[in-house]
Amino acid sequence: MRILVCVKRVPAPGSRINVTEDGLNVDTAHLGFTTSPHEECALEEAAQLIERHGGTVSVLTVGPPEAEEQLRYAASVGGTEFTLVLNESGRDWDPLQTAASIRETILKLEAESGLFDLIFFGNESADAGGYQVGTRVAVGLDRPMVNGIKGLELGDSTVTANREIDGGFEVYTLATPAVLGIKEGINLPRYPTMKGRLASKKAEVEVASTDASAGPQISVRLHRPEEKVTETEILGHGPDAAAKVVDLLEDLGVL
User: Fold this and answer.
1) pLDDT score of 41
2) The listed CATH number (3.40.50.10610, 3.40.50.2300, 3.10.20.30, 3.40.50.620) that belongs to domain 2-251
3) Is this model's pTM higher than 0.85 or not?
């Protein structure tokens, strides 16, 4: 079985995000980066599948040279082959250009080594949250695709995928090759072992270029919302605070 997982380098969750002076990009000077959480789960799901069924897990990312860090992390938790589609523009490409570059690279990889049975994306990226790239790639490859996947099982030339809804699941059966958008919570990603970390340092990363052109979507401005400050008021200490607590509960309608 051949599985491809597409991942994205994103600011670490909880990071303070600052915007550059021109308002068109994120200031990365003091940011830490990681793999988008949905895609961590996609990578774990792929690793578990090949542990059960055999095969390879190829990992692809589009980004700056520094995105090699995310590929080496993937190598430490089960990835076997790695491709970096280089973007040295200093800013993220729009979804159309990103999808076109991924589709172009997938076709090259498949021409060399055969079709991928499954291609995994994260449900959406942790930074842009556009929900577009995976679907655009699937349409470009003319392959079935379902997003929001929280469980899957392999069949004979098929994959059964569960998408969580209120009160249950929608169940889809797709003929392979297929594309799936994996949602966080489908599994618990493993931590890299020492053996995995050492192996990741030796992993070969193929650097690819692309002729994909920019799409018509244009970033106008990034806006960082105002921070909400929570203040704590001390009502008092000991028995002297009891009357104020009662007044507060009455104001809240509890009493």
Assistant:
1) 94
2) 3.40.50.620
3) no
